[in-house]
Amino acid sequence: MLRITALALALALTTTFAHAAATDPAPGGPYKTDPSHSSFNWSFDHSGLSHYTARFTGVDARLDWKPEKPEASTLLVTIDPLSVRTDYPWPEKVNFDAEIGGDESFLAAKPITFVSRKIHVTGNKTGTVEGLLTLRGETHPATLDVTFNGSMAEHPMMGVPKIGFSATGSIRRSEWGLDFAIPELGDIVTFAIETQMVPADYSFQ
């Protein structure tokens, strides 16, 4: 009985999402991050043995979306440095997240922002976003490689428009004065972003 119920539910959800995917795309306008369907992971070389990986949980992206002319869109991303999560295995000994987020040798508890300056459409669903990244109080250019995953005029479960993107990029952290333990710890930091966005006036409450 449980198997039949699960199968029926799966078929219903598949039909619902297939119908939603076939509807009109999301309209243009202001959008914001859906934090329950977004992630920001970053990594760097660690002693040549692995790529140390962590993430930010406090990420707020604001997009003025222009679907008919994506290059005219604008993006502002704000990240809380104290939202870093390293999954350090002995938090009772060292509050490693607080150290990375707040210590002057690392992120110094200073807000991280990315402001778009120019968007280039490079393919049917790909593009680059050039902007200014402020980290540790210093501002320098940075670029995101972005894939537009699609949109829905009405998401079947949330009942509002949604748009989705994947993005990758990298920076040389020493350019922002974050030169701790180079070269033992890599200078190049790479990041991977997944996000779904909802209208800016949507309430998650």
Automatic annotation (TrEMBL):
Pfam families in the cross-refs: YceI (PF04264)
Domain Lipid/polyisoprenoid-binding YceI-like: 30-198
UniProt entry tagged with the keyword Zinc-finger: no
Classification via SMART domains: YceI
The UniProt record lists the keyword Signal: yes
Protein species of origin: Rhizobium aethiopicum
Keyword set, alphabetical order: Signal
Name this protein carries in UniProt: Polyisoprenoid-binding protein YceI
Domain of life: Bacteria
InterPro entries: Lipid/polyisoprenoid-bd_YceI, TTHA0802/YceI-like_sf
Signal sequence, start to end: 1-20
